[in-house]
Automatic annotation (TrEMBL):
The keyword Nucleotide-binding does not apply. The keyword Nucleus does not apply. Gene3D superfamilies: Trypsin-like serine proteases. Residues 1-153 form the Peptidase S1 domain. PROSITE patterns: TRYPSIN_DOM, TRYPSIN_SER. This is Peptidase S1 domain-containing protein. InterPro entries: Peptidase_S1_PA, Peptidase_S1_PA_chymotrypsin, Ser/Thr_Proteases_Immune/Dev, Trypsin_dom, TRYPSIN_SER. SMART domains: Tryp_SPc. One of its GO terms (molecular function) is serine-type endopeptidase activity. GO terms for biological process: proteolysis. Keywords: Disulfide bond. It comes from Homalodisca liturata.
Length: 153
């Protein structure tokens, strides 16, 4: 199963500023297709997959689709200095005893030329170099494979 419409794992109903979401929806998975180049040896690469659900999703104010980018939108040069948002439930500190957050975490990042990230040992042909907008702001362990999003009007 996958859970849709969940924001806070510790509360039955997710409420924000007096507005409460409908109960999260559990959907049965038909299949999961990993990226053919996915690997975890030495470092994570191509950590993305497609999930096919058994039935159609009923969209609500709290459950919405997100568009996949076009080829033009994934050209790294077209993304430089664009502010994007990452989201995840990864650990908030780099310690093994750290408890996972119960609320979905978000962080604004700015896309940089891959040369800025050359000191980090990754396959930059399959990654986007992005940095947090403030000190000590970065994705956390467990956020890998999560969304990198921007609002395109």
């Amino acid at each position: 199963y996958v859970t849709l419409g969940e924001y806070d794992f510790h509360h039955t109903r997710d409420c924000f500023r007096g507005n409460c979401a409908h109960k999260p929806v559990e959907m049965e998975v038909l299949f999961v297709k990993k990226h053919p180049l996915y690997r975890t040896k030495n470092f994570v690469s191509h950590d993305v997959c497609l999930v096919r659900l058994l039935s159609n999703v009923q969209f609500t104010d709290y459950i919405q689709p997100i568009c996949l980018p076009s080829t033009l939108e994934t050209d790294e040069k077209n993304l430089y200095n664009k502010t994007m948002t990452i989201a995840g439930w990864g650990t908030m500190e780099n310690h093994p005893q750290t408890v996972l957050p119960h609320v979905l975490q978000e962080l604004d990042v700015v896309v940089k030329p891959s040369g800025v990230c050359d000191s980090i040992e990754l396959d930059w042909e399959s990654q986007i170099c992005a940095a947090g907008t403030g000190p000590a702001k970065s994705p956390c362990p467990g956020d890998s494979g999560g969304p990198l999003m921007y609002y395109n009007t």
